[in-house]
Sequence to fold (512 residues):
Amino acid sequence: MRGIIIASLISALANTVTGVAIPADGQAIEERQVQPISTAIGPAGTSYIYALASPIPANIASQLVAAPAIPTPTTGVLPDGGAENTPVGGAPLTPPVVASGNVTKAGFRSVAYYDDWYIYERAFPPQNLVSSQWTHINVAFWNVGPTGEAFVVDTEACFTKPLLNPNPGAGALHGIYEQIFRMKNQNRNLKILLCIGGWKYAQDPAWTANLDTTEKRMTFAKSVARWVIDLGLDGADLDWEYPMSEVTAAAHAETLKFLRQELDAAASSVGASRMELSIAASVGPDKIQWLKLKEIDAYLDFINIMGYDMAGSWLTTAGHASPFFMATDGSTPDAAVVPAVDMYIAGGIDPRKLNIAMPIYGRAFENTDGPGKPYSGVGPGTYPVEPGIYDYKALPLTQQDIIFEDEKILASWSYNAQARRMVSFDTPRITYLKAKYVKERGLGGIAFWQTSADKMMKGSNLVESAIEGLGGRGTFEQFDNHLEYKSSKYPNVRVYDGVEVEGVNDLALGLV
Fold:
């Protein structure tokens, strides 16, 4: 009964948002269409849009958070008559607290995934990241060898390629990690994590074979911890995609156990208060079900839930690639973010450890009538190696592409009626509302994949839109990184060379 009451209150709120007229059940509903160069409200006959209450009134919020820390999913009734699993209760609407470490202020995380190949055809060196937008940068991706040893895949990009003002000393570290180490010296709230795995490497059968014994997993953990010290980092991120059996789930958990103990030992050896450990994890219930959630919660500082790639060329119908809620029209056939969040929390993960990773790219569907409809082909995309994926900064593709924002399921897309092309991608408005959900649900923070693809201008920058949804940079956790690595094999990590990285900043973007 309590779940029904709260669902009704939420429905009532959604229908009384200031300035938004929401029709009653059974009436024709309008869908917001955002033109590429302007905003307009126009009629649409098939979809729906519901604005989120902003903010949730205190009397309603108190009822939403009165349930136990791990909410029990209940089935609520959506305003359009569809059914949706809606969590009752949840964590308090306050910023998360970091598990341990030199925390001077509790707050939210903002995590960037930075891929080492960005320095090539993307022409996007680390300093192109706006440092103040992030609390963490995960530098991706490393692999694992036959003995379990973690190894860098692109030595030139990571260690040897001269980038901005390379250190002239003998044996100095260059490449991405030289610049990253300088950036964290300039921004003490910026933590850098070594990211191992990812789709390409962890999907290879060799990955599981190379971590198939306790001895190999211990070797792996020790090698990761050693590299963290040598490169002057603040921890590691394991992207094992995906443990899908009892055997691999147990191996995954034990790998994290060994990583936790080796990172703790590394922190002690260099005098750091904490070396952080995180993972990237799926939204798919078929994948989440295998994870030993209660066990790994004890080892992890946070989890980046990959809230993207829920629709693409592997499906027979066009759909939303990064929705937060399930739709009732067949446009979210695989999964959605919020049901995944519920599953992690019910499985024993502290909600404050859950970051929602969002896309800075879109997935296209050609020859289709729109979401939930059949399609044929995905188009060339921005990346030759994977058709159908477009940088967010390239979207919308033409002036004829109309952008739709569905604030009920938190999804957006463009549609070109003449070309019959749909592209699923997040707009600044939808990104803002997603981050606002993270804040109001009491989750840990946000993360982004394809950080080289953002629009670097005020009002269009997705990362900045998410930060605004959290309440601004003032809501970030304050947790100093570590700078002393006297046992590193690189002289410019043992002793900071003092060279400042002159990268992109808020002022240059007009973000402040």
Notes: Confidence is low (pLDDT under 50) at residues 1-101. The longest helix spans residues 246-270. The chain has two domains: 2-63, 103-365+433-509. The chain is about 30% helix and 20% strand.
